Amino acid sequence: MVGPRRIRGGHPGLREQDADELVVRVGVGGGAADLVQRLRVSPASISQTVAFLEQQGLLKRERAPGGRRERYVIDDELWVRSTLASLQMNDTLVAESQRAAEILGAATLAGARFATSGEFLLLVNATLRKVMEQWQQSQAERNAGRQS
Predict the structure, then answer these.
(1) Are 58 and 82 in contact (CB under 8 A)?
(2) pLDDT tens for residues 120-136?
């Protein structure tokens, strides 16, 4: 999942407090100048961090109609996209774990660890997929209720 800790883990340019504040400020549609002033960091730090988050699909840049300034926003689908990305990454890790277990052999300690890791991630993904299906169903029902 995404949040301040993921930002800290993937982009060391900001202090922990600044990463927390960035998430909050972006969540309410803050712009670069606002973030620089509020966090008391350089425009380059904001630019690098925003580029990283944008590359990860965690925020988007929007320009107000008729305006020149960009603001950064986290849309309503962020958590869905983040979960789908986690599923894809886990699928890759499962395949690599299974491959490593085959190469090393299930009888070896390392092979057994890889096999167990793959099994665990398969279980995690199966659960996440069920949650995603429940979420999609609940959203479809909510949207149908709004249209009635």
Answers:
(1) yes
(2) 999 999 999 999 999 99
Q: Which residues contact 30 (CB under 8 A, 6 or more apart)?
A: 38, 71, 72
Q: Identify how many contiguous H helices and E strands the chain contains and give both numbers.
A: 6, 2
Residue 93 to residue 80: CA distance in whole angstroms: 20
To which H or E segment does residue 74 belong? Answer: none
Provide the residue ranges of all domains of the chain, joining segments of one domain with +.
4-73, 78-147
Question: What's the pLDDT tens digit per position in 6-35?
Answer: 444 445 555 555 555 565 555 555 677 777
The verdict on domain 4-73 having CATH code 1.10.10.10 is yes
Neighbours of 48 (CB within 10 A): 14
